[in-house]
Design goal:
Layout (H helix, E strand, L loop, with lengths): L1 E4 L2 E2 L5 E5 L2 E6 L6 E9 L3 E11 L25 H18 L7 E2 L13 E9 L4 E5 L19 H4 L2 H10 L8 E6 L4 E6 L6 H14 L2 E5 L7 E2 L9 E4 L4 E4 L10 H15 L6 E5 L7 H6 L3 E6 L2 H13 L6 E5 L7 H5 L6 E4 L7 H6 L7 E6 L2 H13 L4 E8 L9 E7 L1
Helix pairs in contact: 1-10
Length: 431
């Protein structure tokens, strides 16, 4: 056991301290605190420790709302005030931009945040049948473990899903394939809720009856997924769901499938789209690209502003969904979609899409390095980059500012995942 003063937080939400030339990472410790801790992993340059006692707590320390905090690996920052979490994430973003990309934004954008609880409209719950614990467990994985947390509620899920955790355990226990159902995915729309059951064996007739009764009692639609995400199908015709969310400011309704990628936090997504469009500032008649467009979350808002929007996406299914959304929103004339592997993009393939006045990028965690390397000298005069990984954003920012002639005009965080260390952000690059 050792006593340390915590200096800051790392990207996983762990406290950072120094001792004898080593960096010590302490889970559950906050900046400014004096704590005692016990190392459980020792390396030549660093150690990782568990928190034993807080001798002097930080002013921002709060009591975690969830009784499973510390056991469940879904959240890592519930012991830190929600507003302070945003400040920590802003520092992570700025540190990443400087230490990885050697670039600083000219302006820090106000943070985007929304409800701190009940915000997760998408979630992937692990399922495991454990006879020693009384049967099925349904929830997130335990911290630093492949085990499923023994939990009956979740504070970051909407209450209607949180209260389903115990009934879901009972349901799985009653199924003949209880040991062959490893996952249940939640997909919430504005008018329908879907549960996608990953089934590794066919269901018996009695199983189907139990599922039908469960769905009726709890007001959910059930999909069965025997293979990859594209194999998810309604259990029967009556379970087919109109899953959608709206962007009222742009008069848009976006439909999605239960396994499609969509933002988990609907409230923050609305603010994010508004901010992104204000920063991108598309003008009527301009040609604007939306790279990694998904179901058209940003593309259709761009088109609604009067620009000619071109969404580019690697998934054929998402391209079809986006085109259908354009049609149902009356935007087929100004919003089109192209299926293309953006990770294999080069200058020639990018040129084949035609010139763009502006561009929005919303890549996965791997970032968009091939795309930014392929941008021509006369490329879009403004880029808005929505990132879910500050490290790859910083790497791509280095390419844009040093090799492509852009400057980093502004950047700020988006608290899409409160109580986690996940850092989303938005950045603006100008020529």
């Amino acid at each position: 056991m050792m006593t340390l003063l915590i200096e800051s937080l790392d990207q996983e939400g762990r406290g950072i301290a120094r001792r004898d030339g080593k960096t010590i990472f302490i889970e559950g410790a906050l900046p400014g605190e004096r704590v005692t801790c016990t190392p459980y992993r020792k390396k030549p340059a660093y150690e990782v420790a568990t928190l034993d006692k807080v001798i002097r707590p930080a002013a921002q320390r709060v009591a975690p709302r969830c009784r499973y905090f510390g056991l469940c690996g879904g959240c890592s920052l519930q012991h830190l005030d929600a507003r302070a979490q945003v400040a920590v994430k802003q520092r992570v973003l700025e540190d990443s931009l400087w230490h990885i990309g050697r670039v600083r934004p000219e302006q820090i954008l106000p943070a985007i945040y929304g409800p701190a609880w009940g915000y997760r409209h998408r979630a992937r719950l692990a399922v495991r049948h454990v006879p020693k614990k009384g049967g099925a467990l349904v929830g997130f994985h335990e911290k630093r473990s492949s085990y499923v947390a023994d939990m009956d509620s979740c504070e970051v899920l909407p209450e209607r899903f949180s209260t389903l955790l115990r009934p879901l355990r009972d349901l799985v226990n009653a199924l003949s394939i209880r040991s062959r159902l490893p996952q249940i995915e939640i997909a919430a729309g504005e008018e329908a809720d879907v549960l996608v059951l990953r089934v590794l064996e066919p269901l018996a007739a009695a199983d189907m009856e139990r599922l039908q009764e469960f769905a009726g009692r709890h007001g959910v639609r059930l999909y069965l997924q025997p293979g990859g995400p594209d194999t998810a199908r309604p259990m029967s015709d009556e379970h087919a769901a109109d899953l959608h969310y709206t962007l009222p400011e742009f008069n848009l309704k976006l439909c999605f499938g239960p396994t499609d990628f969509t933002q988990v936090n609907h409230a923050v997504n609305r603010v994010l789209v508004r901010r992104a469009l204000a920063l991108l500032d598309p003008q009527p008649g301009e040609r604007v690209a939306d790279m990694f467009c998904g179901i058209g979350n940003f593309t259709l808002a761009i088109a609604r502003r009067g620009a000619v929007a071109v969404g580019v996406e690697g998934s054929a299914e998402l391209v079809r969904r986006a085109a259908a959304n354009a049609g149902s929103n009356g935007l087929s004339a100004t919003a089109s979609f192209v299926e293309m592997d953006i990770y294999r993009l080069d200058g020639g393939r990018l040129a084949g899409l035609g010139p763009f006045d502006r561009m929005l990028l919303d890549p996965p965690r791997d970032g968009a390095v091939e795309l930014v390397k392929a941008l021509p000298d006369d490329g879009p005069r403004r880029l808005v980059y929505v990132s879910c990984n500050p490290g790859t954003l910083a790497r791509d920012a280095a390419v844009l500012t040093r090799a492509s002639g852009y400057r980093l005009s502004a950047a700020g965080v988006v608290n899409m995942f409160p109580h986690t260390s996940h850092v989303e952000s938005i950045a603006v690059f100008d020529k």
